[in-house]
Amino acid sequence: MRVVLVTMALRVPTDPSRWITVPPQGYAGIHWIVANQMDGLLRLGHEVVLLGAPGTEPPSPEVTVVDAGEIDDMHAWLNGPEAAGVDVVHDFSCGQIDPDRLPAGMAYLSSHHLTGRPKYPRNCIYVSYAQRAQAGNDNAPVVRISVNDARYRFRADKDDYLLYLGRISEFKGTYEAAAFAHAAGCRLVVAGPSWEEDYLKRIESDFGDTIDLVGEVGGERRLELISRATAVMVLSQSTMGPWGVVWCEPGSTVVSEAAACGTPVIATPNGCLAEIVPAVGVLVAEGSQFTPEEAAAAVAGLPEPDAVRAAALQRWDHVLVAKQFETLYHEVLAGRTWS
Ligand code: UDP
Q1: What is the CA(105)–ligand 1 centre distance, in A?
Q2: Mean pLDDT throughout 109-129?
Q3: Could you tell me if 176 and 289 are in contact, meaning their C-beta atoms sit under 8 angstroms apart?
Q4: Candidates 10, 20, 25, 27: which one to mutate for ligand 1, based on the most atoms within 8 Å of Cβ?
Q5: Cα separation of 156 and 154, whole Å?
Q6: Which of 172, 232, 253, 272 maximizes ligand 1 atoms within 8 Å of its Cβ, making it the mutation to test the pocket?
Q7: Does this complex have an ipTM over 0.90?
Q8: What's a Pfam family in this record (predicted)?
Q9: How far apart, in whole angstroms, are the C-alpha atoms of residue 307 and residue 287?
Q10: Residues 75-100, buried b or exposed e (16+ Cβ, 10 A)?
Q11: 92 alpha carbon to ligand 1 midpoint, in Å?
């Protein structure tokens, strides 16, 4: 099949003349998800057209990168002559593509990666049951975030630090991760962009002695940090999120990434985390009240790196997940619809 993957088109915040590519230069979960899905489809023998990430280096001749990032340009390409051979559009853009603006009869599905209801619920696939329940869409399929372990690095020997990898925001639980590390007597490396100055100041003022702030990371530095950590902290909080609904962790890219590196996860049960973390880590309560005993017990209860990696690949391997999507593509081509 010739599959169009649409990523969320975003400009690099520090250099708006460039687009975030697939895979991304730094922070950007959806662009990693699209990279892994592209790898899976290629392994299954499909062709991929990538929309929404101009500047991406095509990894093989079977990938065409379209030079369209603006929303109108993406719709124009989808309605133009080059889209004539397209079999299916799989849209990860979370609302940038309007299915009503596609040519009549073009097969279309989307994957939702935000909290709350998707802007266009038609043929929308969710990444967790919790996310689907919040959207109130019981008939829709759930397909997990995949991981291609060739893009990651397994390491059995871990260093003595915990890692926070993501945007430094209240709903993502960076403060609580620092509180946990403090109680456990471990260092917390905090990697990721920070757009909420007061929040960061509060973390620094309460836990400045526990954290190492390293800023946004990409490439080799990111891989080293993930693969060497004792555990990745995902203490997502059910607080008001950025889209006007209570934050319900939708799919959590970092969980499958960490697990592919053999790095276990310490997470709250918020949203998808209650569904996916028990196989690759431990759950702790929301909030920041951790006793040293509780924190030490959570760290002591972490699964071994080999078991973590095996569990991740058994559940979320990129080819396995691409096959689940492939089945849905065939069903939509055969006329299935849901909303
Ligand atoms: N990430 C990164 N560099 C950073 C911080 C985060 O590459 O400095 C990546 C991380 O590996 C993951 C993504 O950004 O792929 C965050 O995605 P996740 O689903 O965990 O969080 P969200 O998209 O909700 O912010």
Answers
A1: 35
A2: 96
A3: no
A4: 27
A5: 7
A6: 253
A7: yes
A8: Glycos_transf_1
A9: 28
A10: bebbeeeebeebbbbbbbbbebbebe
A11: 16
> Cα(206)–Cα(214) distance, rounded to whole angstroms?
18
Question: Which residue has a Cα nearest atom 15 of ligand 1?
Answer: 29
Ligand 1 centroid vs 217 CA: distance in angstroms?
10
pLDDT beyond 90 at 243: no
How large a percentage of the chain has pLDDT more than 70? 100
| Tokens coding 69 | 């990032």
What average pLDDT does the structure give for the chain? 97
Report the pLDDT averaged over residues 132-156.
96
* Distance of alpha carbon 157 from alpha carbon 159, whole angstroms: 7
DSSP string, 108-153: EEEE--SSS--SS-TTEEBS-HHHHHHHT-TTS-B-PPPB-GGGS-
216 CA distance to ligand 1 middle (Å)? 9
Contact present, 15 and 23 (Cβ < 8 Å) = no
CB contact at 8 A, 184 and 296: yes
**Residue in the block written with tokens 């954290």:** 211
Q: Give the position of tokens 């004539």.
A: 84
pTM over the 0.95 mark: yes
CA-to-CA distance for 70 and 59, rounded, in angstroms? 23
